[in-house]
User: What shape does this take?
Amino acid sequence: MVVFTVLILNKAGTLLFVQDFANVPKLMANERIMLASTFHSLSAIAGQLSPGTDNSGIQLLESDTFKLQSFQPLTGMNFFVLSSLDQTGVDQLLRKIYTLYADYVSKNPFYALDMPIRCSLFDTKLNEAVRAIETAATWRGVDY
Assistant: This one.
């Protein structure tokens, strides 16, 4: 049970933050930007084509080797987590990441909106949250 990567995009689809937590193949910066903007675009199209009232786009994408789960709050930001298929509690982790973003990034007087996120306290708290969810899923078998 592993969280591989956390990505944060603004409402225009610009990659603001990415952090790897496991040994994943290193992508070049341009490849990460292209991957994030492609998923953002596909999610936006899926949201418009959705027949239901919830048009927040793609919320979960599963492959044979990983799952990508997203959370889009009312602010329009997109929070993505790539994890192993057996990782539980990812939706709670996404909401926790949003709370950490609100507390440590958006309230930071030195942070300008839509700029890359460079906040050491946010990084520390994010690492703690990811390790907590991995530990909870691995040792206790319960959700975060």
About this structure: The mean pLDDT is 87.
